[in-house]
Write a structure and sequence with these properties.
Chain A: Pfam families: ABC_tran, BPD_transp_2. Chain A: This is Branched-chain amino acid ABC transporter ATP-binding protein/permease. Chain A: One of its GO terms (molecular function) is ATP binding. Chain A: It is a multi-pass membrane protein. The complex is a heterodimer of chains A (593) and B (235). With 593 residues, chain A is an alpha/beta fold. Chain A is 53% helix and 12% strand. In chain A, strands 10-11-12-7-13-14 form a six-stranded mixed beta sheet, with helices on both faces. A four-stranded antiparallel beta sheet of chain A has the order 6-5-8-9, with helices on one face. In chain A, strands 1-4 form a two-stranded antiparallel ribbon. In chain A, strand 2 and strand 3 form a beta hairpin. In chain A, helix 1 runs parallel beside helix 6, helix 2 runs antiparallel to helix 3 and helix 2 packs across helix 9. Chain A starts with a helix and ends with a helix. In chain B, 37% of the residues lie in helices and 28% in strands. In chain B, the strands form two sheets. Chain B has a six-stranded mixed beta sheet, sandwiched between helices. In chain B, a hairpin with a 2-residue loop joins strand 4 and strand 5. The longest helix of chain B is centred in the C-terminal third of the chain and has 17 residues. Classes of the chains: A alpha/beta (593), B alpha/beta (235).
Chain lengths: 593, 235
């Protein structure tokens, strides 16, 4: 009995570590090769704190006798959690801000190797290569939990707590934000969200859980040894997540059971000589999996998460009509401009930009009038996209200023511009393919309490209520563009035209009054183009100021009130579209002479 | 006359992004056909689809009476089609001669290569005068001539040209296009040329198409197109 309970405990430990890593790997899309280190940091911290003091051991610290601070296990566990979280924060600040993709793998790999070495070297702290032993077991009342069949309940409870935390966070608006950052960091920033903080939080929450498990494992095994926290173990944890399914916690549970059973299975049925082969076996299993089922046994979005509507996979019960949506959205929309006086809302003053020796923009000055649709047009290479990118903060101008409602906003990052009321779309849409249309649009809604971990924990019911409002608003935005019936579908299931509409709906959800659209009709089939054009007309009805870059003059004629004509980086003319079309010299610039 | 190249209902794109929608196009032997359209309208994708570098979503392509949807681009070149890209149409680090030799990479007979090279040099004397110059040192206009020379080395029956006016000074645009016209006439070769420069194309084309957002919105003769005053709504 004890034998099986012991195996179950090691599987539960692996499972909890896998689940916590999946929060980082699956939801935030960040690969960490150092998860075993945080597991170890928790273990060593708890060990040092709970080991008996010198006095308790008779007043003499002799070699081989390991001493500590004789803490109760509960505070020691809590401190272990905090230390692991802080350690993760220290390593992740440079990692998240500066490093992307495979470099993050290398950086965490280096951290894993260095930290594991240090565990062996810093013998005053860690006890050296042989680690620390004699750690007292957990006491419940007066009973020490020494036997596996007693301790298993503690570990089971810990696993459940970890799953609840990771699942709760992962499926909350905070998790939605993480997934958004995972797929398109620039798009998340473009709807006013700071992409750095959520990732740091994911890193440290994931490490905190690993630290807690490390403490519990130390209490159970009675010893902590650096070699237990090696790179091999980190890779093992990553394998559990990848095999089970990245971004799916039930997959991790299955993966942990499958991989965790491998060793005892080999021992039982093949014999001890098979043990060295287990690395080969799980390596081979991973290779086969990557070929046959790269998303893992249980892919993201498959499992119990579907049962609850947090995720928004169910078709909306009531699809609002366009009129209802319009009525509700009008309350937050900017004031509609009455005909008459033109009033500038964005002023672009003498913007300049060179790339090497090429002057892309040589002093562009123009205005966007409030409530109007303005198009930037001109021949290929005129500098339209460059100017566009400088207005929305994606590209730094060499010289010149951009004013929004009279305030200088030159060079402000995208997420700050959104808070001031200016947001952009992307030519290549950048909608999150693995999120539903509704969740994509919900990313655009500002000031969501559910996106903050502290609010989720402290005011769970208030955040649920707020989330209902967020979802209603997102649905209204989709309804206004005529695609509310597809709100529950993953964006990857939608046509390209519908994806463009989702991107516009996401902009609408930001409540920004100035919207910049980058080639809204490019890549859209003729039938869907009409829907995009209608959608942009709706933005104007709501009182938004729109600026667009569009290569097709035909669409500009249908979409825009005003146009700014550019050639070789300079503004040649501006006025109503008809006025510009009637000027012969512009036609010559555009069509050649 | 039976067209040398014909596309029917061509729909193509990249992943979900649709670039061409139901495009019908044909080119007769010896005919110069222009495709005009705004930036991003799908002109380059049309050329790449015709020479089988971009897969079709649906539609048919016929070359010299044979269906070629499943033929690779390498085979299309061997069968007598050539393509000259808009950007970097030459091998910048190689000499002029090496560039031209690469154009005839399907031919193994050295004497035949020599013969073709002499022909090309006759059309573009500057290439003969500077055979061993590194091609990257050429001016934009000379590079454009070289790119046409590379295409001619394969002795194509139809040339696909992507924006030959790019990278050359406005003064030589006219001359370049006249050369293209003469080549087509002398060799009874067909040319399908894609451009944003309306004037340049309408001056030499027998027929033009206008492509807007992936669909053909106009087909008319070169002469009619030259008379057209307003182009805005077609772009």
């Amino acid at each position: 009995m004890s034998y099986y309970a012991d195996i179950a405990i090691s599987i539960l430990i692996l499972m909890t570590l896998g689940v916590s890593l999946n929060l980082l790997l699956g939801y935030a899309g960040r690969v960490s090769m150092a998860h075993a280190i945080f597991f170890g940091i928790g273990g060593f911290t708890a060990a040092r704190l709970t080991l008996p003091t010198v006095e308790e051991l008779g007043g003499v610290a002799t070699a081989g006798l390991q001493t500590g601070f004789s803490w109760h296990w509960v505070p020691a566990l809590l401190v272990a959690v905090v230390v692991a979280a802080v350690a993760a924060l220290v390593i992740s600040i440079p990692a998240v801000r500066l490093v992307r993709g495979e470099y993050l793998i290398l950086l965490t790999l280096a951290f894993q190797l260095v930290a594991n070495q240090l565990m062996g070297v810093l013998d005053k702290v860690t006890g050296g290569p042989y680690g620390l032993s004699g750690i007292p077991p957990i006491q419940l009342g007066s009973t020490p939990l020494i036997l596996p069949e007693q301790f298993i309940w503690v570990m089971l409870a810990a696993a459940v707590v970890a799953i609840v935390i990771c699942w709760g966070l992962g499926e909350s608006p905070f998790g939605r934000l993480l997934k958004g950052i995972r797929e398109h960091e620039s798009a998340v920033a473009s709807v006013g969200k700071n992409p750095v903080v959520p990732e740091l939080l994911a890193f440290s929450i994931s490490a905190a859980i690993a630290g807690g498990v490390g403490a519990l494992a130390a209490f159970y095994y009675g010893s902590v040894v650096p070699s237990n926290y090696s790179l091999t173990y980190s890779i093992f944890i990553v394998s559990v997540v990848v095999l089970g399914g990245i971004g799916n916690l039930s997959g991790t549970v299955v993966g942990a059971i499958a991989l965790g059973l491998l060793e005892p299975f080999l021992r039982e049925y093949v014999g001890d000589e098979a043990i060295p082969w287990q690395t080969v076996i799980y390596g081979a299993a991973l290779v086969v999996m990557m070929r046959l089922r790269p998303e893992g046994l249980l892919p993201e979005g498959f499992g119990p998460g579907r049962l609850l509507n947090w995720r928004g996979r169910k078709a909306p019960k009531v699809v609002p009509t366009e009129e209802e949506a319009l009525a509700r959205l009008s309350q937050d929309a900017p004031e509609v401009v009455t005909e008459g006086e033109a009033e500038p809302i964005v002023q672009v003053l003498d913007l300049k930009k060179s790339f090497g020796g090429l002057k892309a923009v040589a002093g562009a000055t123009f205005e966007l009038e409030r409530g109007k649709v303005t198009a930037l047009i001109g021949p290929n290479g005129a500098g339209k996209t460059t100017i566009f990118n400088m207005i929305c903060g994606t590209l730094r101008a060499d010289e010149g200023r951009v004013f929004l409602r009279g305030e200088d906003v030159t060079g402000k990052p995208a997420y700050q511009l959104v808070r001031k009321g200016l947001a952009r779309s992307f030519q290549d849409v950048r909608v999150c393919q693995r999120l539903t249309a509704l969740n994509n649009v919900a990313l655009g809604v500002q000031n969501q309490p559910g996106e903050r971990v502290s609010r989720l924990v402290l005011r769970p019911f208030a955040t649920r209520t707020a989330e209902k409002r967020v979802r209603q608003k997102a649905l209204d935005c989709l309804a206004l563009l005529g695609i509310a019936d597809r709100a529950h579908l993953r964006v990857s299931e939608l046509s390209y035209g519908d994806q463009k509409l989702v991107a516009i709906a996401r902009l609408l959800a930001t409540d920004c009054d100035v919207l910049l659209l980058d080639e809204p009709t490019s890549g859209v089939d003729p039938a869907s183009v009409e829907k995009v054009i209608d959608g942009i007309a709706r933005l104007r009805t709501l009182g938004h100021t729109v600026c667009l870059v569009e290569h097709s003059v035909h669409f500009v004629q249908r979409l825009a009130d005003r146009a700014v004509f550019l050639d070789q980086g300079a503004v040649i003319a501006q006025g109503t579209v008809d006025e510009l079309m009637n000027r012969r010299e512009l036609a010559e610039l555009y069509f050649g002479t | 006359m039976q067209p040398i190249l014909q596309g029917r209902g061509i729909t193509a794109g990249y992943g979900k992004r649709r670039v061409l929608s139901d495009v019908d196009i044909h080119v007769a032997p010896g005919e110069v056909v222009g495709v005009l359209g705004h930036n991003g309208a799908g002109k380059t994708t049309l050329l790449k689809t015709l020479i089988r570098m971009v897969p079709l979503t649906s539609g048919e392509i016929e070359f010299e009476g044979e269906r070629v949807e499943r033929v690779s681009s390498v085979k299309m070149v061997r069968r007598g089609m050539s393509i000259t890209p808009a950007e970097q149409p030459i091998f910048r680090d190689l000499t002029v001669e090496q560039n031209l030799e690469l154009g005839a990479s399907g031919v193994s007979d050295r004497q035949e290569i020599r013969r073709r090279m002499d022909e090309v040099v006759e059309v573009f004397p500057v290439l003969g005068e500077r055979r061993s110059t590194i091609a990257g040192r050429f001016s934009g206009g000379q590079q454009r001539q070289l790119s046409l020379g590379i295409a001619l080395m394969a002795q194509p029956r139809i040339m696909l040209l992507d924006e030959p006016s790019i990278g050359i000074s406005p003064a030589v645009v006219g001359a370049t296009f006249r050369t293209i016209r003469e080549l087509a006439q002398e060799r009874s070769m067909s040319v399908l040329v894609v451009e944003q420069n309306v004037k340049a194309v309408t001056g030499i084309a027998d027929r033009v198409y206008v492509l807007r957002n992936g669909s053909i919105v106009l087909e008319e003769s070169g002469a009619e197109a030259q008379q057209r005053e307003v182009w805005w709504d077609l772009f």
